Amino acid sequence: MKSFNYSYNHENCTKDQTLNAQLFSTPVGENQWAHFGSDYKTDDLRELLSELGLHELWITNIFESENTIAPIELESGILLFLRNVSYSSSNLELSTNLLNIIWLPGGIITVSKDHINSFDPIYQRLKQANSGIRTHGSEFLLYKVLDSMSSQYLKTANLMEDELEEIELQMMNEFNPNILDGLHQMSKDLVNIRKCTKRFNETIDALFELESSQIDGLNHYFEDVHQRILNLEVKLRSLKDQIANLLQLNLNLMGMRTNEVMSFLTIVSSIFIPISFLAGLYGMNFVNMPELQSKNGYYYLLTVMASIFIISLSYFKKKKWI
What we know:
Elements: E1 4-8, E2 13-15, H1 21-25, E3 31-36, H2 42-51, H3 56-64, E4 72-73, E5 78-88, E6 93-104, E7 107-111, H4 120-126, H5 138-173, H6 179-209, H7 219-281, H8 297-318
Parallel strand pairs: 3-7
Antiparallel strand pairs: 1-2, 1-3, 4-5, 5-6, 6-7
Helix pairs in contact: 5-6, 5-7, 6-7, 7-8
């Protein structure tokens, strides 16, 4: 996702090319949303953050930290460190993108080098006249960003749930040993998304605990996001149990498959062991073996072997073992 900067109010929304730190610090009837994407210049962002009064350590965390940390209360804003998630059902791959959010009275600044799918519906609504985002302040835009992220988390969990149901159907219809690799990968992805969800929930909890008058008006917005994250944690626990059940089912199916193979080999051995015994017995090179002098001994032996084969096969079929 490329960088952009929107200035908006209840009447219009324009895409600006320049950024003014003063607009973020002091509301002037318009709100700003500046996103620094894959094409942003580090020096430009660093200069803007410095003008906004961010400590050099916090700026360093934005550029260098790969981990999410607790929210930081600024002099006139809040700095958040989060991870956005997305899931590709085509190749069973979960991706997590580090996202930094700076909320200020005059707007928000978001920083991520990766594409954030959850932003797409927000700036589409931002362009619509009389949309709820444009008629509210920057705190509502922050809520919509967090709400869209939580929705993306839930969408990812739903995609994983659909994929698990598809895997379960495949396991029931036909045994496939390659399914085990997919289940192990989904189990790893589930661990990652649960970590991100836990960190997301801790961030929302920390916002409630910040003792600042500037976020008092945000709490009723965060309640909705918090509840969605709690519901998501319940769903993720359910997915964990579902994966564990599918892994156990796969092991049971592998055991059944092994038992079927062993049963088949046992039946084959039971049929050919007596035949092999007769072949070995009359294959010994002793001089005094009267049967070897019999004119029709060879045909008698073949008849006995064929009888053993037919009787054994009929018996196993009668018992429904084959």
